[in-house]
């Protein structure tokens, strides 16, 4: 986690906040497992923001985990995400 650039950390936090981006996508793109993302969020966000994020991720309707998703949702990114320049997999 320490070897990430500021831009990468910002992108990981952005992806973690996005409801449709699963932890598996963050792991695929940045090599950070869910526990490492949680540590990054805990160390970066204000306590109240971190608690709000954890509450959103832990709800029964959360789609942050591929196993909890509807089987029809299989992609890691939406079609509008191509324009994000910091997304390393956007040009594939």
Short description:
This protein is mainly α. The protein has helices at residues 6-17, 23-30, 34-44, 47-58. The protein has one domain (6-83).
Please provide a written account of the structure.
- This is RNA methyltransferase.
- It comes from Roseivirga seohaensis subsp. aquiponti.
- Pfam families: DUF2805.
- The protein is mostly helical and 92 residues long.
- Helix content is 47%, strand content 0%.
- The model has no long low-confidence stretch (mean pLDDT 78).
Mean pLDDT: 78
Spatial shape = globular
Coarse structural class: mainly alpha
Number of E strands: 0
Query: Topology as H/E string?
Result: HHHH
Strand content: under 5%
What is the CA-CA span between the terminal residues? 24 Å
Our count of helices gives 4
Q: What characterizes the major β-sheet?
A: none
Low-confidence stretches: none
| Domains (count) | 1
Helix content: 40-55%
GO biological process, one term: methylation
Protein name: RNA methyltransferase
Organism: Roseivirga seohaensis subsp. aquiponti
Keywords: Methyltransferase, Transferase
